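pipeline/complex-builder :: batch 7 item 3
reading input block
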Amino acid sequence: MTLVEVLFLLLGAMALGSAVLVAVSANLVHCALWLVVTLGALAGCYLLLAAEFVAWVQVLIYLGAVVVLLLFALMLTRAPTGAVPDLTSSNRFLAAFTAAAASGLLIVSFAAGFGGTRIEIGSGDIGSAGALGSTLFGAWVLGFEVLSVLLLAALIGAIVLSRRQERD
Amino acid sequence: MPLLFPLVLSALLFGIGTYVVMARRHAVLVLMGVELMLNAVNLNLVAFDAWWHDALDSGQVLALFVIAIAAAEIGLGLAIVLLVFRTHQHINVDAMRELADRDGGQRADQEASKHTDRGAGSSPDRVAVTPP
């Protein structure tokens, strides 16, 4: 077992453990903070998979923006900072069964399809900002532009939704 | 590294995200579950990219696209959550029943009252919607 595998297993266990805590914690702010741990551990996994730029984008967008937005939403909706007793709905066992069935099915099909394959991380700059930027603005530029229009639409939609209606 | 490591991790994360979306009552927690599911997808994309050595970097570029779409989704989702909080004073997703199918007996009662109110105009299969 190489060092990369050991590190990946450690980061994966960290991500899984904190994701479980997001799923079961009774404190809303703790859930958001455990989500930070999950996303940070996943950024480490991306680094180990030679996706350096994706890892830093993950740190910037998810840890920097999305979690802050979630915390803002928790505060704006006056979420209690203490433990909330009935945060999980009563059909949690059905939900847990469905989730376990979904991930079990995925794991079985992955094991059947890619059981013995190994990732050989190549040398050179695979996931650096330069290499990714040249393909992003070369072959993927149409998707990039469509995505910017989508972001604009989401921005306008969020403004329209959160504007107070003027009653006459 | 075996390809199964990231694949199994992403499958488990997807399952946890599914559980959070289905079992949690707070709307912001549901959004957190969606984020977990999207991150599982991203891990899959990056792992397959590292395995396949694509000349176009498809997996990593698509992971970047998914991250951007997740940012747009979280912005819209939080706008909706704040709107719901402003109109309902709570964001308990189990208690938002305005657009839900009513239970059998209750629904039959409502349909009956509707029929007496408006005559035979409304079809029996219509979902009851309370006016704002």
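note: Residues 58-88 of chain B form the longest helix (31 residues).
queue -> next item
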